[in-house]
TrEMBL record:
This is High-affinity nicotinic acid transporter. PROSITE patterns: MFS (PS50850). The keyword GTP-binding does not apply. Keywords: Membrane, Transmembrane, Transmembrane helix, Transport. Residues 1-20 are annotated as: Disordered. It is found in: Membrane. GO terms for cellular component: membrane. Residues 9-20 have a biased composition (Basic and acidic residues). The chain crosses the membrane at residues 54-72, 92-114, 121-139, 151-171, 183-202, 214-236, 288-313, 319-341, 353-372, 378-400, 412-432, 444-467.
């Protein structure tokens, strides 16, 4: 049956409206460049300058953050399990998971605090303090003291990741953010992966000053964290709209151009006065919890790998301790390549959901190979797929939520809940591979497969929901993402 002329006309009008909306945003950004007399060459220069000062700095700081919270696996096979009597009980899992209790609880206030005192002071100070906690962990005499240190570490690290996610989202337009999120996470993820090799080298210090190798791992990495915290104080930048007298790295004209283009892209560059009621009101938006659940599913797998991969390589696959410490790194190197490539694709073609689905499929294929194949070398290949897909979904999910949220305080609330659910995923990841399931860890593998399948369902549902809302907005029936700053004409959700 052929379509009626009325239907064809309606479809043409709908397509025109979609094209007009997209052109409207692009034209607005071009007008901002013209208004501020910014040439394409100057645009590239300014953005590269921001990338170097912002993305690389928080990436290196995130490297030590990720390394410091996940070095238990390296320490455990370097003698910690024996010295602290962690064999044959669940004390290791308790030490792993107590970190996330305070890590989750202290995240919402941290995203408010970073706006009040600025990211330079906030991020560098908490990094310096948790470096001191890391050094103290090297002198823990029993598992209870180690657990207490991990609780304190959670308090201090709670504000770091959500503040970085929030800070990055304020400097870039929606379709520049994917690559920046991936570089930020990639620097931290890939560099911290080589911490296994570094840990193996530090282990050789066993016996110096009467300390075991695992103690030196905590002490040396704690000292490194303190040094990076000091450097971060000098290198970190503030929010682009901040009026604080900080170490300026952009001229006033360039900073105003940055703010104007973000305003043109999503209309929320200005920060209204903080009101607790409005801040918590964001929790009524079900999309925020959907993003958070995606991140929970993702981090369940990434933390399980971070905490237990050295143990799986030694116990399940039969590699030596030295080989296991070194074999952790190559899968994370592949993860860096995948996350950068997929984020480039997502920014270029202005998509987010398909990137998450692709990465999720890598995990679904990799987990059964990693867990059930009879050959250890083939199982190690499964580790590559699982590690690449799961870790690549971290920046992909960050960009997904950042693209589809408007309003500064709503963005701050979303960043806090998003990362908090990642912390809950950390608790799950700490528990899925239990001692009693050694060496096969079958229940843990089933749990990781289940959370990964749930991600497919959530992203599919959100994609359909966004498609319906965008169509309704194109017809003028609704306004999208209205906040305290009002409605941003032309704003559409990113599938």
């Amino acid at each position: 049956m052929s379509s009626s002329p009325t239907n064809e006309k309606s479809m043409d009008a709908e397509a025109y409206r979609e094209e007009k909306v997209e052109t409207q945003v692009e034209t607005t950004l071009e007008n901002v460049d013209e208004q501020y007399n910014i040439t394409p060459q100057e645009k590239k220069r300014i953005i590269r300058h921001v990338d170097r000062r912002l993305v690389l700095t928080v990436g290196v700081m995130y490297c030590v953050s990720l390394m410091d919270r996940t070095n238990l696996g390296a320490a455990s096979i370097a003698g910690m399990k024996a010295d602290l009597n962690l064999v044959g009980n669940n004390h290791y899992s308790i030490i792993s998971l107590v970190f996330f209790v305070t890590y989750i609880v202290f995240q919402p206030p941290s995203t408010i605090l970073v706006r009040k005192i600025g990211p330079r002071i906030h991020l560098s100070l908490i990094t310096f303090l948790w470096g001191g906690v890391m050094i103290a962990m090297g002198f823990s005499g029993n598992w209870q003291v180690m657990a207490g240190m991990r609780v304190l570490l959670g308090v201090l690290e709670a504000g770091f990741f959500p503040s970085c996610v929030y800070l990055l989202s304020t400097w870039y337009t929606r379709y520049e953010l994917g690559v920046r999120n991936s570089i930020f996470y990639m620097v931290g993820c890939v560099a911290s992966a080589f911490a296994g090799i570094m840990a193996y080298g530090i282990m050789q210090m066993a016996g110096i000053a009467g300390l075991n190798g695992w103690q030196w791992i905590f002490i040396i990495e704690g000292l490194l964290t303190i040094l990076i915290a000091v450097a971060g104080y000098w290198l970190l930048v503030d929010f682009p709209d901040s009026k604080r007298a900080t170490w300026a790295f952009l001229g006033e004209h360039d900073r105003q151009w940055i703010c104007a283009r973000v305003q043109a892209d999503r209309g929320d560059v200005k920060t209204p006065p903080f009101q607790l009621k409005n801040y918590l009101k964001a929790g009524l938006d079900i999309k925020i919890w959907a993003y958070a659940m995606i991140f929970f599913n993702t981090t369940t797998v990434t933390y399980a790998l971070a905490y237990f991969l050295p143990l799986i390589l030694t116990g399940n696959m039969g590699f030596s301790v030295g080989a296991a410490q070194c074999l952790v790194a190559p899968p994370y190197a592949l993860a860096g390549i995948v996350m950068y490539g997929t984020s480039k694709f997502g920014d270029k073609y202005k998509v987010r959901g398909p990137i998450i689905l692709f990465n999720t499929m890598l995990v679904i294929i990799g987990l059964p190979i990693m867990g059930f194949h009879s050959n250890a070398a083939v199982r190690y290949f499964g580790v590559f797929l699982t590690t690449a897909g799961a870790n690549s979904n971290v920046p992909a999910a960050m960009s997904y939520q950042a693209n589809n949220i408007r309003g500064q305080w709503k963005r701050a609330f979303c960043s806090a809940t998003f990362v908090a659910f990642g912390g809950i995923g950390g608790i799950a990841g700490s528990l899925v591979f239990r001692d009693q399931d050694f060496p096969g860890y079958k229940p843990g593998l089933y749990a990781c497969i289940a959370t990964t399948l749930l991600t497919l369902i959530i992203v599919g549902a959100l994609t359909f929901h966004f498609w319906r809302l965008n169509r309704a907005a194109d017809r003028g029936e609704i306004e999208l993402e209205t906040d305290e700053d009002g409605y941003q004409p032309g704003f559409r959700y990113t599938y």
